[in-house]
Amino acid sequence: MLAFLKTSQCLGICLSALVAITIEKNSVPKADNVHWVSLDFKTILTWTIKASNYTYTVLYSEDDRDWEENPDCIRLREPECDLTNYLEAFDRVYSADIRTEPVTMDYDDILEELPHTYSPPFNPYRESNISAVKFTVAFADESSVIVNITEPLTGIHRQGKQLSIRDILKNDLKYKISYYKSGSSGKRDIISDSSLAEVSKLEVGDGYCFMVAAFIPSRPKNTQHGAWSVQLCANRGSNVLRELNLGAWVGVVVTLIVVLVITVTVTVLCCRCYQQRQSTHTSQTSAPI
Question: pTM for the full model?
Answer without folding.
Answer: 0.69
